[in-house]
C-alpha cells in the first residue's frame, strides 16, 4: 500500500495509518501486541518523530547516523527509543552509543567490539543477508550462530536477528523469512526483525516479531538523505 507525501504529518494522521498497519498484521492471524512496529523516519524531519510519538510509537528507526543524532538532540524526541538501522561504522559508534537503544544491523565482530566498548550490554540484532548478493550488508545464515556466540562473549545483549527481504514481489521473500525465523528459534533469540511496508504480511506469517515501517506511516520521503 502506497501513501503520498504529506506536508503536514500529525499524530492523528500517523495514528490512522498505524491502525491500518495493525489491521494488516491482525489479518495474518497474528497478535498485534506481539509484533512491534518500528517507525522508520529516514528522510523525514523531526516532525515525523514527534507525530510517531504522539501516535504511541516510541521505537524509532533511523538509517543514517547524522540524522539520528540530530533528531535525538531535539527536546521533543526525548521519549524515543532509537533503533539504528544503517551499516555500523566504527568511527560513528561513539556518537551513536549515547542515544541508540537497539543496534539492528551488526554483522561483524569488530562492530560488536566497538559497541561493547562504548555501550556495554547494549541490545543488538545480527543482520542477515538473505539475497546472497555480496554487496548487501549482513552475514549468511550459516554464519549467524558463530557471530551470535562472539557477540555474547562481548557481553552484548543479542536479542535477535534482522533481515531485508529479497527484491521483487513480497512472496519471493517468504523462503528466506521462514529460514531466518527458524534459525532464531533454534538459537533461542526472541526478536525477528523482518518485514516493511510492502512485505509485512509475508514476514508476519513467517514469524516476524518486529516490522520496520516508514512509507506506510509517513508517506514517501520528501527528501533524499545523504
Per-chain topology:
Elements: H1 11-27, E1 36-40, H2 46-54, E2 59-62, H3 65-72, E3 81-84, H4 90-97, E4 100-106, H5 109-118, E5 123-128, H6 144-153, E6 157-163, H7 174-186, E7 191-193, H8 200-205, E8 210-213, H9 215-218
Helix pairs in contact: 1-2, 4-5
Question: What does the model show?
Answer:
The protein has helices at 11-27, 46-54, 65-72, 90-97, 109-118, 144-153, 174-186, 200-205, 215-218, and strands at 36-40, 59-62, 81-84, 100-106, 123-128, 157-163, 191-193, 210-213. It is of the alpha/beta class. It is 38% helix and 18% strand. The radius of gyration is 17 Å and the shape is globular. An eight-stranded parallel beta sheet has the order 7-6-5-4-3-2-1-8.
Largest sheet features: 8 strands, parallel
Give the amount of beta strand, in percent: 15-25%
| Structural class estimated from helices and strands | alpha/beta
- Low-pLDDT stretches are 1-6
Q: First CA to last CA: what distance? A: 26 Å
**Radius of gyration, whole Å:** 17 Å
How would you classify the quaternary structure? single chain
SSE ordering: HEHEHEHEHEHEHEHEH
The helicity comes to: 25-40%
- The outline comes out as globular
What is the tally of beta strands?
8
Number of helices: 9
Amino acid at each position: 500500500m502506497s501513501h503520498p507525501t504529506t506536508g503536514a504529518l500529525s499524530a492523528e494522521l500517523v495514528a490512522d495509518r498505524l491502525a491500518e498497519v495493525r489491521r494488516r498484521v491482525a489479518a495474518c492471524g497474528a497478535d498485534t501486541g506481539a509484533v512491534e512496529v518500528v517507525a522508520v523516519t529516514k528522510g523525514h524531519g523531526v516532525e515525523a518523530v514527534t507525530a510517531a510519538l504522539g501516535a504511541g510509537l516510541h521505537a524509532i528507526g533511523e538509517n543514517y547516523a547524522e540524522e539520528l543524532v540530530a533528531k535525538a538532540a531535539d527536546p521533543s524526541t526525548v521519549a524515543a527509543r532509537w533503533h539504528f538501522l544503517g551499516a555500523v561504522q566504527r568511527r560513528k559508534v561513539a556518537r551513536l552509543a549515547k542515544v541508540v537503544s537497539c543496534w539492528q544491523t551488526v554483522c561483524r565482530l569488530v562492530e560488536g567490539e566497538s559497541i561493547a566498548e562504548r555501550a556495554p550490554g547494549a541490545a543488538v540484532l545480527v543482520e542477515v543477508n538473505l539475497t546472497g548478493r555480496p554487496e548487501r550488508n549482513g552475514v549468511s545464515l550459516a554464519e549467524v550462530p558463530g557471530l551470535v556466540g562472539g557477540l555474547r562473549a562481548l557481553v552484548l545483549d543479542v536479542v535477535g536477528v534482522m533481515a531485508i527481504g529479497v527484491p521483487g514481489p513480497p512472496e519471493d521473500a517468504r523462503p528466506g523469512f521462514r529460514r531466518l525465523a527458524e534459525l532464531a528459534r533454534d538459537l533461542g533469540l526472541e526478536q525477528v526483525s523482518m518485514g516493511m511496508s510492502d512485505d509485512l504480511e509475508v514476514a508476519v506469517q513467517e514469524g516476524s516479531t518486529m516490522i520496520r515501517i516508514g512509507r506506510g506511516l509517513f508517506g514517501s520521503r520528501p527528501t533524499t538523505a545523504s
